[in-house]
């Protein structure tokens, strides 16, 4: 009887031990899912500081973590190191801003898991001038002058204008127009007291910059000179020369043209930006046109030049019969009407050879 009980107990213990061993293997091979904690979706650092991009990961077994920025893998280097707490960045730069991915990976003999955590990183930096050399503007007494101050920063900058020690605001004399990265101060120049030195102060939570901005008395440009020619049918070439007596740089010209017998009320015009050589196209062939030019600087326009009359070149068509030229004609209509020319027919072989070459370095239409 005792022998049977001992055998039974032995079998029971063997089964229990086998179950424990199997359960132990199941627990050992079990996978605890990846979770991210203490990992904000948006993280902000300051330019020039050392910064830890936080990414805390829980999983069992311990996960393998890799980092990516803008879909490019990050390798350990002098400035960036992957740690247990996240990605450590030394001397943070504005170029370090971007979309980061903290990728965790775990694997067991029977199962694996990969999970990403996307993190937007912003770098705060103090304002930086967009155009540091833009500090001089011009106006005349009795007009309105504009001063401009442009800078970029993160977070966005705040602009302030000063005249001496006085902080300026909107008034009968001053009007401030603020945009995200630019501020314009409009000044009604009632007298010479409104000219001179102004201060632009740009700041945000990281720092500030300032510079002196000047509004000086200017004068409109002098009348330019120009020459006309027509080397191609239906086109006028305009070559403009700036007056040597101008004190301010030009920012363009106004070119007006019309048929010679028409009124200037019906003239067409073109406002140029830069350059001195222009072409007026789509004019009637073999026709007289009147042209005049005005120069422009920051103050305004000059008076117009004297009016010049130039005849456009005609379109020459040579009629050839059996290899012999028998007729030359000049068309006075624009090129758009050429498609309406009649088709020449007959027993002789007739061809129209049109000597027309377009060289449009700069076209006005």
UniProtKB/TrEMBL annotation:
Protein origin, superkingdom: Eukaryota
Pfam families (alphabetical): I-set, Ig_3
Enumerate the InterPro entries for this protein. Cell_Adh-Cytoskel_Orgn, FN3_dom, FN3_sf, Ig-like_dom, Ig-like_dom_sf, Ig-like_fold, Ig_I-set, Ig_sub
Signal peptide stretch: none
Q: Which residues form the Fibronectin type-III domain?
A: 220-315
* Keywords attached to this entry: Immunoglobulin domain, Repeat
Return the PROSITE patterns for the record.
FN3, IG_LIKE
UniProt GO cellular component terms: axon; neuronal cell body; plasma membrane
Tell me one GO molecular function of this protein. axon guidance receptor activity
Query: For this chain's UniProt record, which GO biological process terms are given?
Result: homophilic cell adhesion via plasma membrane adhesion molecules; synapse organization
Q: Which residues form the Ig-like domain?
A: 47-104, 132-214
| PANTHER family, per the entry | CONTACTIN 5, NEURAL CELL ADHESION MOLECULE 1-LIKE
This protein is called Hemicentin-1
Q: What species is this protein from? A: Araneus ventricosus (Orbweaver spider)
